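Annex B. Sample input.
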Amino acid sequence: MRELDDEEKPSSPSPLPLQQIKSKDLISCLAPKLIFFQQLYQAANHDIEGI
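Annex B, continued. Sample output.
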């Protein structure tokens, strides 16, 4: 019984929340991080150009 439960747990809960998440919600969550990484990338480029 434990083996069946272990096999069912990873398969059933993971796909459902991902399907429920809307692309707009995902983008709104990731956008600030992407902007932050872009700023870091630009800063790194400026440092490299300065050297």
